Amino acid sequence: MSDAPFVRRDHQRGIALLTLDSPHNRNALSARLVTELREGLDEAVKDPGVRAILLTHTGSTFCAGADLKDPAAGGPLGLAELLRSIVESPKPVVAEVTGHARAGGLGLLAACDISVAGEGASFAFTEARLGLAPAVISLTVLPRTDPRAAARYYLTGEVFDAAEAVRIGLVSATADALDGILDGLRAASPQGLAESKRLTTAEVLRTFDRDTAALAEQSARLFASPEAAEGIRSFAERRSPSWTR
């Protein structure tokens, strides 16, 4: 495996740029990627020259979800901690998606304060098709997404596009809005951003306080189940799982 970073860091006019760059596993949430992403977030938060953080990606996939071969330290709780660190960051985090986002990648996207998606972006909650459920990522997804749409896409695993992601509230805007969003963040004061963000994330953080332990337990239980083993095995073998009709 290359020694190149899985999360590249850059700086552009007051914006810390964190680029997911782990093409061998489609930017899945491996132990190394999660560690490097948390380090990049921490560095950006501590840098007085950074007004906001832009999370983007290389390749055709923003994030494929959990890395089943190399899970993040702490398992489901480790993922919850990553998502909470984004929500709690006093500096706004903006996500730019120009490719595919699946499963846990949608939780990462929903943790960000603002998100934009290009025409080539696609989204799917694929967990139910593998014998799993979008448990931990519900901490960020459900407070910010239309409940009827969440029910549909959680249950069916259907793929939907950027326009639908904007309509249901999972994504803030289409990609052409990004420059204006970043200019607006550059024009705001650090205190104004931090205190305004505190207002918009209060309910999400209450959800973390209330539900993290139960959702992490649910996720761990499902991953250890025979149905999930069959679902994950069938996915790796590119065949239909035994329950498909």
Describe the structure using short key phrases.
245 residues, 2-enoyl-CoA Hydratase, Chain A, domain 1, six-stranded mixed beta sheet, four-stranded mixed beta sheet, Enoyl-CoA hydratase family protein
**Largest sheet features:** 6 strands, mixed
The CATH topology assignment is: 2-enoyl-CoA Hydratase, Chain A, domain 1
CATH-scheme architecture: Alpha-Beta Complex
Average residue-wise pLDDT: 96
As laid out across the biggest beta sheet, the strand order is: 1-2-3-5-7-10
| Strand elements, count | 10
State the separation between the terminal residues, measured CA to CA.
Answer: 39 Å
Provide an overview of this structure:
Helix 1 packs parallel to helix 2 and helix 2 (about 75-90) packs antiparallel against helix 8. This protein has a single domain, classed as 2-enoyl-CoA Hydratase, Chain A, domain 1, CATH 3.90.226.10. Strand 1 (about 5-10) and strand 2 form a beta hairpin. The strands form two sheets. It has a six-stranded mixed beta sheet, sandwiched between helices. The chain is globular and about 55 Å long. It has helices at about 30-45, 75-90, 105-110, 140, 145-155, 160-165, 180-185, 190-225, 225-235, and strands at about 5-10, 15-20, 50-55, 60-65, 95, 100, 115, 120-125, 160, 175. The protein is α/β, with parallel strands linked by helices. The protein is built from nine helices and ten strands.
Short description:
This protein has 245 residues and is α/β, with parallel strands linked by helices. The protein has 9 helices and 10 strands. Helix 1 (31-46) runs parallel beside helix 2 (75-88).
